[in-house]
Design a protein that fits this description.
Number of domains: 1
Strand content: under 5%
Radius of gyration: 20 Å
Largest sheet: none
CATH architecture: Up-down Bundle
Structural class: mainly alpha
Helix content: over 70%
CATH class: Mainly Alpha
Shape: globular
Order of helices and strands: HHHHHHHHHHHHHHHHHHHHH
Distance between the termini: 53 Å
Length: 399
């Protein structure tokens, strides 16, 4: 185990140094490390570590969602309004439907498996988007029109929407029954999840105003509460769908609302934790990839992913139509909605783990989506942010 961890850290960090020079996102370096050390190449990651990888991926997802929540100001959401709401579901819905209908025609999978694949691939990546939007907010670029706040809010809910849809399609596959009731209760599920998170965050602030402890203890308490929210989701899944992950985001937002100073300090702590969590998340998903599948499927997955991106961008453009955004700002929003990584890494291997017939193919396409879109989105945002977004003191009217 220690040798494997040493190799994971040393190889991933070494590759990352090279990739930074090439302006390629670090997560690609980490996934390549996982592929090299995984069972399908050198087989140097022990089965004990692979066995707990789903839990480690869940923890990594919680870290990035907490960071998103702690940076998401509710006042900014009110100012953004309609575009953020449309961005939270319209692009993902269009992409899920497109992949769900097209993939069974070109691959050996059922339509339910196709929609399962669509719900995995559709989610935009908080690992790529959140840090960049936080940076834009801190540097006040695009903030008068609340562009980074809009993208941060919409993409965060986009992830939860995709995860909930994946859960619905997974249940449909396992029970051979697509539940329209589950789909109809989705809005109520969102409201209850948000209320649970907001209340939890408020209580967290109240408790730690009376109990003075180090921020490190508060971080550990937040982890404990977040894990409990996910456990509640699993406990209630057969009764009513509650999203523990959405509640985690809402909890962070509530902490920011009631204690901004504490929120800023905790954000710094979680930014440091993410450094290690990101390595383990993407190394472990890379380790699960059977690279021989790439040879059998050819270029069809690439065409599917590129086509779905075009569908997504068209719907992103529709979501921000008739707003105060100019063409450049709309193009930046489309670029920001390009990268896929975190959700694909967190749930892409679940169908394979559960023995679903096309599980290996679903994981392969999910990983390919990361390799194609994460660099595209990250390089696009970093390279064009100064050209497409104005500094707040030079901007005009708000949305």
């Amino acid at each position: 185990m220690l040798l494997s961890l040493a190799l994971i850290l040393l190889i991933s960090l070494s590759l990352n140094l090279i990739f930074e020079k090439l302006k390629i996102p670090s997560l690609i370096a980490f996934m390549i490390t996982g592929i090299l050390l995984g069972a399908y190449v050198f087989n140097l990651i022990p089965s004990e570590l692979i066995a707990i990888s789903p839990d480690l991926r869940q923890i990594a997802l919680i870290v990035i969602l907490l960071r998103a929540g702690l940076s998401l100001d509710l006042k900014d959401l009110k100012k953004v309004g309609r575009p953020a709401i449309l961005l939270s579901f319209l692009p993902a819905t269009a992409e899920i439907v497109f992949i769900g209908l097209i993939s069974p025609l070109i691959f050996d999978m059922t339509i339910i498996e196709g929609f399962m694949l669509g719900s995995i691939v559709a989610a935009v990546s908080p690992a790529v988007v959140v840090p960049r939007m936080i940076s834009l907010i801190e540097n006040k670029r695009g903030t008068k029109k609340q562009i980074p706040q809009m993208i941060l809010a919409g993409s965060s809910i986009d992830d939860i929407f995709a995860i909930v849809m994946f859960t619905i399609f997974l249940q449909a596959y396992q029970t051979n029954n697509f539940s329209l009731v589950s789909l109809a209760t989705f809005p109520l599920s969102i409201v209850i999840s948000l209320a649970l998170g907001l209340l939890t965050g408020w209580l967290f602030v109240k408790v730690f105003k009376k109990i003075h402890v180090r921020d490190t203890i508060k971080v550990l308490a937040l982890f404990g509460i977040s894990f409990l929210l996910v456990v509640i989701e699993n406990a209630l899944k057969n009764i009513f769908a509650v999203s523990g992950l959405l509640a985690v985001i809402a909890m962070g937002t509530s902490i920011l609302r009631f204690n901004p100073v504490l929120s800023e300090r905790l954000t710094g702590k979680f930014a440091k934790i993410w450094v290690g969590a990101e390595i383990m998340l993407f190394v472990l998903v890379g380790a699960a990839v059977d690279i021989s599948v790439f040879q059998t499927v050819g270029w069809l997955p690439v065409l599917l992913i590129v086509s779905s991106l075009i569908v997504r961008m068209f719907n992103v453009f529709l979501s921000v139509a008739r707003t105060g955004l100019n063409v450049k700002e709309k193009i930046f929003t489309c670029i920001a909605y390009t990268p896929k990584a975190t959700v694909q890494a967190a749930i892409g291997a679940i169908p394979l783990t559960l023995g679903i017939a096309s599980g290996n193919l679903i994981l392969t396409i999910s990983v390919l989506a990361i390799f194609i879109t994460a660099p595209l989105g990250a390089i696009g945002m970093d390279g064009f942010k100064n050209k497409l977004l104005s500094l707040s003191d030079k901007e005009s009217i708000a949305i």
